[in-house]
Amino acid sequence: MALRPRALAAAAAALVLPLLVGPATTATATAHRPTATAHKPGEAACTPFTSRVAVAEGARADQRISGTLCTPRGPRATTVHLLVHGGTYDRGYWTVRGRGGGPSYMEAATAAGHAALAFDRLGSGTSSAPHSSRYTDTTHELVTLQLIRTLRERGYRKVVLVGHSFGATVARMVAAKHPDAVDGLVLTGEGAPPNNASFEQMLGLYMPAGQHPLLAGRRLDDGYLALRTGGKADWFYHRGSAEPRVLLHDELTTEPGVYPTDPAYGDVALNRHIRVPVLVVVGQDDRLICGGQGTDCSSTDSLKAAAAPLYGPRAKLEALAVPATGHSLNMHRTAAVWYAYAQDWTKRRVDDGS
Question: I need a surface site. Which of 101, 162, 172, 302 has the fewest CB within 10 A?
Answer without folding.
Answer: 101
